[in-house]
Specification:
294 residues; alpha/beta; 10 helices; five-stranded mixed beta sheet; D-Maltodextrin-Binding Protein, domain 2; 2 domains
Length: 294
């Protein structure tokens, strides 16, 4: 019994010591190596961006019908020098254009064939009175069909009975200039006091722009017409002949140009006006038979 008792005590002592002895910590389970993020290289130069296109702009130019060909060429040159700009023209009799502008038509520039119609707009407040600038001049000429059925050889022949004459309406600049020529002829005295009245008796049509006068004479619908020399020069097919009006009887037409107050692009509109007044613009106008302002 003593032996069993002693063995029991020893066994208990051994178990107690074992419980107090520190146990080794198990080794961690190996895992995969962490992924390392390589920073992206910073570019050393700024990439080249595509060129910025200028915004599209439309410039509305209201111009006398007699300017059709010259301004057509000026418009193309202006567009070439100003990418993104489109010049849109409205050609008609100056009196019609003045009415349109005063009625609110979207115009940026007005080029008139006389000061009267420019004054119509300035008086209505549509153009600054100090803005208009004379940019070119013109003169009158009598045209007859190539066949010349009425046998018109002199200015006196315009007063012969039976002659069919076409003029522009007096509200149109060229029509008013034609009446001034007839007044000058009466004052001169060489054609007689009744010259103006006799000529006006022969008028079969009053047109609303100078291009219509030219067209009807070209088509043989009249024996004669009075137009600007620049319009007569556009007849490159030889459908008409010209009868000059001497300087002492002729009338010099004055053409003013200005920016319209209601323009949505006033700076660009002024640039167009400046181009018309420039040496290049004047050269183009001279090319089409206009008299330069210099």
């Amino acid at each position: 019994m003593k032996i069993r008792f002693i063995r029991g005590i020893c066994l208990g002592f051994i178990l107690a010591v074992s419980a107090c002895t520190p146990q080794p910590t198990p080794a961690p389970t190996p895992t995969s190596a962490p992924t390392t993020t390589v920073p992206t290289a910073i570019p050393t130069s700024v990439p080249t961006l595509p060129p910025t296109q200028p915004p599209a702009v439309t410039l509305n130019v209201f111009a006398a019908a007699s300017l059709t060909d010259a301004f057509g060429e000026i418009g193309k040159a202006f567009e070439a020098a100003h990418p993104g700009v489109t010049v849109t023209f409205n050609f008609a009799g100056s009196q019609a254009l003045a009415t349109q502008i005063n009625s609110g038509a979207p115009a940026d520039v007005f080029a008139s064939a006389n000061n009267t119609q420019m004054g119509v707009i300035t008086k209505a407040g549509g153009i600054d009175p100090n803005a208009p600038k004379m940019f070119v001049k013109n003169r009158l000429v009598v045209i007859v069909p190539k066949a010349n059925p009425a046998g018109i050889q002199t200015l006196q022949d315009l007063a012969k009975a039976g002659v069919k004459l076409i003029l522009a309406d007096k509200s149109v600049p060229v029509g008013q200039y034609a009446l001034s020529f007839l007044d000058n002829a009466v004052k001169d005295g060489s054609m007689g006091a009744a010259y103006k009245d006799d000529v006006l008796k022969n008028v079969v049509s009053y047109e609303l722009d100078v291009k219509s006068v030219l067209s009807k004479v070209e088509l043989g619908e009249a024996d004669a017409g009075i137009v600007y020399t620049t319009d007569a020069a556009t007849d490159t097919t030889g459908q008409t002949s010209q009868l000059a009006i001497p300087d002492n009887l002729n009338v010099i037409a004055i053409y003013p140009i200005a920016v319209v107050k209601a323009s949505l692009n006033p700076a660009l509109a002024q640039t167009f006006v400046d181009y018309v007044l420039s040496a290049d613009g004047q050269a183009t106008l001279t090319k089409f038979g206009f008299i330069p302002v210099q």
